[in-house]
Model the fold of this input.
Amino acid sequence: MVVIGSGGATYEIFDFDRLQDRSVRLRGPMLLEVGEEIALQFSVGDAHASARARVFSHELDAGEPVTIAVLIEPPPELVGLLRTSG
Done:
């Protein structure tokens, strides 16, 4: 998965953990700024989808940092794609 920060920086270091309601959990070695609007690009097999999200919070899960981002108007095909992959 690819995360594009508000300044245009591209990060391919995050893994999609799961979708819960409109919140996406991202595992990765760095934390994005709370409140930052980011673009997310997901790929599962040959299927691709993208959406915008706002970083909501951070937590530790088994000692690993997790970024929680809330999807902004997620397209239906993205929600279907994430539910099958998470």
